[in-house]
User: Fold this.
Amino acid sequence: MRALPRSAFGPFAGFLAFGVLWGAWAVSVPLVQQATDASDGALGLGLLGVGLGTLPAMVLIGPRIDRSGPGVMPWALALLAVTALGPALASSVLVLWLTLLVWGAAAGAVDVSINAAAAEVEARTGARVMQLAHALFSLGVLVGAVGGGAARQLGAGRAAILAGAAICLLLAALANRDARALNRGPVPLGPPGFKLRWHVVALGLVCLVAFLVEGGIESWSALYMERELDTGPLLGALGPGAYAIAMVSGRLAGQVVTGRVAERRLLFGGGLISAAGLLIAAAAPAPAVAIVGFFVAGAGVSVAAPVAFSAAGRVVDEGERGSAVATVTTMGYAGLLIGPGLAGGVSEAAGLRGTFVALALVALVLVVAAPRLRLA
Assistant:
């Protein structure tokens, strides 16, 4: 593996801090619900607001990056740090909805800008850094969740937990204060209108499939462990826990083999491995087998989204890189939003074991798509 360029360390900090925020938010949700007296339905609508803010922001930030480059990243990180405190201060359901809508918009801008910055580093240096960048995001989620959970155990409230994540985002913004060096200067966008790049849409579909599988495992594995395999909450938590560790491990392994293994083979093999892991989990007669299955499934699917993001930065002209990354990000995030709901619908019809069989079939889409993608 070739030495990492120094220009990658700023985006790396952004990925890590972004993951810390999402991990901290996950363990803060019960505290937020209690403080705002939100019902489960009201909280669900509020969480939908995150997506409603995120998707338009992702679409809009792409052309901005096309014009000037990913130097918008530190400003997006700083904005997200400020908006992250909104749910910590909300005292009513209405205020919570509004703060989550604004937070979602800032998160969408950060998501696109950090991926665009990593793609810019790859384009400029020839180094492949996307697998490691996404591994750091997954590591950040673990750190934020474990650290936030420990803080809750010690009596910390939602404000302290989310403020800690906000500080991480501000530090990442400072680490990217020289991100202007990645700017290209003004780039003409040509006549207005939506440019449909089918090879970029294909990469977006790969990301959608990957995030759909990821969201299904993350949301339903603990319930599967408890309901189908009669575990308690602590042992049941090892299902999503094994998956989360596998996401970090798989992407670190992907970074090591990048350059040695063709990306098509990496995507093809990852899809096969993920499908096999999901089938192992679906047929598991005991909790230990299911935990192994979820780990294998996570390790396999973990490499897919970074491959799609990396390719999106290479298959278009320089002045379209931001929009290409935004397209892949938006489609991928749509998969993350619809994945848990689709899995729930399958569970109603075929049971939880059937859910993971269905997710295995979805993972095989990566196997079919890999030889047909334009990756360079």
Residues 187-194 have pLDDT under 50 and may be disordered. The first helix runs from residue 9 to 36. The radius of gyration is 20 Å. The chain is about 80% helix and 0% strand.
